[in-house]
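Table S2 (continued). Query chain:
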Amino acid sequence: MKHTEIQHTKTMETGISTNQYNEMLRGIIAEVKMTRVVIANRLSTSVTQLYWNIEKRLSVEKLEKGYGGRVVEQLSADLKSEFPETEGFSPRSLLDMKRLYEFYSESKQISPHVVAEFENDIPPQAVAVLLIKVN
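Corresponding output:
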């Protein structure tokens, strides 16, 4: 962490004292840092909602390994092509997403809002892997 303050105590050329300047600087730095945290939390919540919606869609379409497996494979290929920088769209991941949604929605214990609360600690893909290993 950088320590950015003017160390001398003379009045700056602009007419503002060094102490006033340092106080202003610390306030701006604190606000930027706080806003970054707010943005990260909103992004995390939005990503969680996105995955929940994908999971729900896969469940509603009743995609399974059998007949729907070909659909899942094609969907995976198309999503990877459209979003090459994004991980988590393998056929197995898509089926894991579906199972995760079904587990949470059937148990009625967890909604996407609750998932968003613990997502900072446990990424959705890790939750899916844990769920598969437990079941």
